[in-house]
Design brief:
688 residues; alpha+beta; 14% strand; flat
Length: 688
């Protein structure tokens, strides 16, 4: 057994592609070895801006030989009517180094085929790797690629060296004129000479001596630990920012955190503006005190081991001074103008080509919010309308129009609204209306923010579909799936009585459309996202399907019913009830049944009993559903099980008499309609 090591050395890679590329490279190499039945030990990935690396332990030295059975052409193509071998059979045998007499016939699921057994010698794993690695590297996927030579080979960034070892031996292959070897490069600012790696186990140690922390976990730990230490020295802590930590890890090979400071006068700026200026312009960490108030310090992370920290600090502080001066000017200018005057300016900004301006979008948001407020109840419509009026104005402010601060849209609107004297509820709603920005993001806390977010996302989704920008496969440039998930998560968290079809229809009407095809596509989008949410909450797919078949359009109600059904399925008689519902569904499948049964046509006592009991529970079932007591509703339906079982035992539903048959189908259809008020239980899957 040996260890295998492959490092692809490059120019600086974009931070977002490094880890996915390393993971994909490892997956491909492991899959290639598995194709030959080779089992390996533990595997690892390493990466820095200048390299992606794979290391696999306990790799066998050779692929064992043996006898393999090879399938050839069909028997009918291999022999003629007289049983003589055809040219096809002769060619197949010759290609395998065998004679026709070595061929034999076997029956497969596709018919009779010719086979031959062949001795295969052992193959060195080193040879397998040498023949495979160039293609595996060449086809690594990246969001964007580039060419750097006349060969036409593409990669995320130019490849400068390749290190490849199998134990202490070099694995030799060529890629765009670069021969793989046993050397790598240290940190660009520390050493310009190649460094030899004797064996894969030496990799991390040797590179660390050359000021490269090739293990990303080690770099992450170093950044976090040193930044916190520097913050504590001035009585603060680092403002949490996992995204910035990951980016810092991916743009450094040997991180050197350095504490800097800025003029305390800039602390009058909104906290979010200060943090964003430090992060987006210079990738620096902010420092706050125990109360969350920013301190006039920040931490820059250099990628230069042994640098003159005073000199680096000077240039960072100088750059930040310029940025903060600009930010203060933008904020002061915006506050002089205010937000309400910008509503009229929205007329000059196109929202989606062909669907009008942001001013028109604002008016639709006001109408959607009014519709939602009346649906939900208990909402101050005047405050909500004011929030809807002002929520898009910050897009025209100086701060948000600066590309480094675009992430503050909504946030700046809320900050400005508060500074300009708007009620706190309005400022909070404006600040929250873009939430959630991802399935993992926090949801709006306020009811006004929740309603405004639902309205904005609904308008975005409907408008995107009307513009023809419909997501396909993994392509979703306008993020409509994410936004639909956001709408549903808010509705579910707040338990809002919002119906999706009514919401979508209102959105379409405000855009002047009654396109039924678009309506169907948008509704299907919401249904798919609700199903995904239920699955993520641990609700079985069959339970979700049973509920979504009836009431998916009211998300809060659908989830409550699904949860009740999950709890209820532990009842001992539940399985028999499901079996009965499946029989009902099977009998009614393909039948055109309408109306109620005629009691005068009942001939068996079982028919009368089922009808009477079903009629008896119907009012109470309606009451339980009205009060959202779904468990009690299921208990009521369960009480019908003996009567349903008796009907199937005593009555031939599909009898020859057409009048009796149709009457019995109407009885079953009525019973099924009661169950459908809760869920389509026929979709529940019973184990075994």
């Amino acid at each position: 057994m040996r260890s295998f090591l492959l490092e692809i050395g490059t120019e600086e890679l974009p931070p977002g592609v490094i880890e996915p590329a390393a993971c994909e490279l490892l997956r491909r190499i492991c899959a290639r070895l598995e194709e030959d039945g080779l089992k390996t030990g533990a595997s690892e990935i390493f990466y820095t801006p200048r390299r992606i690396t794979v290391r696999i332990s306990d790799v066998p030295e050779e692929k064992p030989g043996g006898v393999v059975e090879l399938q050839g052409p069909p028997k009918r193509a291999g022999f003629d009517s007289e049983g003589k071998p055809s040219k096809t059979a002769i060619g197949f045998a010759r290609a395998q180094g065998k004679g026709v007499e070595d061929l034999y016939v076997k029956t497969t699921p596709k018919g009779e085929y010719l086979f031959v057994k062949k001795d295969v010698p052992p193959v060195p794993v080193k040879a397998i790797l040498e023949n495979s690695l160039a293609d595996l590297v060449r086809t690594l996927p990246f969001p964007k690629t580039m060419r750097w030579s006349s060969s036409g080979i593409r990669f995320s960034r130019p490849i400068r060296w390749i290190l490849c070892l199998f134990g202490e031996e070099k694995v030799r292959f060529e890629f765009d004129g670069i021969e793989s070897g046993n050397w790598t490069m240290g940190h660009r600012n520390f050493s310009s000479q190649p460094v030899v790696i004797a064996q894969p186990e030496d990799y991390e140690r040797v590179l660390l001596d050359c000021k490269v922390m090739v293990n990303p976990a080690q770099r992450r730990e170093a950044v976090i630990e040193r930044c916190q230490q520097l913050a504590q020295e001035v009585g603060g802590t680092v403002v949490p920012d996992p995204e910035l930590i990951e980016e810092t890890v991916n743009i450094t090979e040997y991180p050197e955190p350095i504490r800097c400071q800025f003029n305390p006068d800039y602390l009058v700026l909104p906290k979010e503006v200060l943090i964003t200026a430090l992060k987006m312009h210079q990738r620096c960490f902010s420092i706050q005190d125990q109360n969350g108030k920013l301190l006039p310090f920040f931490i820059a992370v250099a990628n230069t081991p042994g640098c003159d920290k005073d000199w680096v600090r000077f240039w960072y502080e100088r750059a930040i001074e310029s940025r903060l001066r600009d930010a203060r000017f933008f904020v002061q200018s915006d506050l002089k103008v205010g937000l309400e005057p910008l509503v009229e300016e929205e007329k000059r900004v196109v929202w989606i080509e062909g669907l009008g301006s942001y001013y028109e979008k604002t008016q639709r948001l006001r109408e959607l919010c009014r519709f939602l407020a009346q649906t939900i109840g208990g909402i101050d419509e005047l405050l909500l309308d004011r929030a809807a009026l002002l929520c898009k104005t910050d897009l025209l402010t100086s701060v948000v129009r600066e590309k480094e601060f675009t992430s503050l849209q909504g946030v700046m609107g809320g900050i400005y609204a508060k500074l300009l004297g708007e009620p706190d509820l309005i400022a909070q709603a404006i600040k929250e209306h873009y939430l959630p920005k991802s399935p993992q993001d926090r949801l709006p806390e306020s009811l006004l923010g929740s309603v405004l977010s639902i309205a904005d996302k609904t308008d975005n989704i409907v408008g995107t579909y009307l513009a023809g920008e419909i997501p396909t496969g993994s392509e979703d440039p306008f993020g409509v799936r994410r936004q639909a998930t956001g709408v549903l998560l808010i509705i579910l968290q707040k338990r809002l009585p919002v119906g999706i079809p009514e919401l979508v229809n209102k959105g379409l009407a405000l855009l002047g459309s009654s396109d039924s095809k678009v309506q169907e596509m948008v509704l299907e989008l919401f249904r798919e996202r609700l199903s995904a949410i239920l699955a993520e909450e641990g609700i079985r797919y069959d339970v979700a399907n049973a509920v979504l078949a009836t009431v998916w359009h009211t998300p809060s109600e659908a989830r409550a019913r699904a949860q009740a059904l999950v709890e209820f399925r532990d009842q001992p008689e539940f399985a028999r009830l499901i079996v009965g519902q499946k029989r009902v569904a099977n009998i009614l499948r393909g039948q055109e049944v309408s109306g109620l049964p005629d009691q005068a046509l009942f001939q068996e006592e079982a028919e009368r009993v089922l009808w009477d009991e079903a009629q008896q529970i119907a009012p109470e079932l309606k009451d339980k559903l009205h009060r959202a007591d779904y468990r009690a509703a299921l208990e009521l339906l369960l009480s019908l099980r003996p009567a349903i079982d008796r009907l199937f035992d005593d009555v031939l539903v599909m009898c020859e008499d057409e009048r009796l048959r149709m009457n019995r189908l109407r009885l079953l259809s009525y019973v099924r309609s009661l169950f459908a008020q809760v869920a389509d239980l026929s979709q529940i899957v019973l184990e075994g």
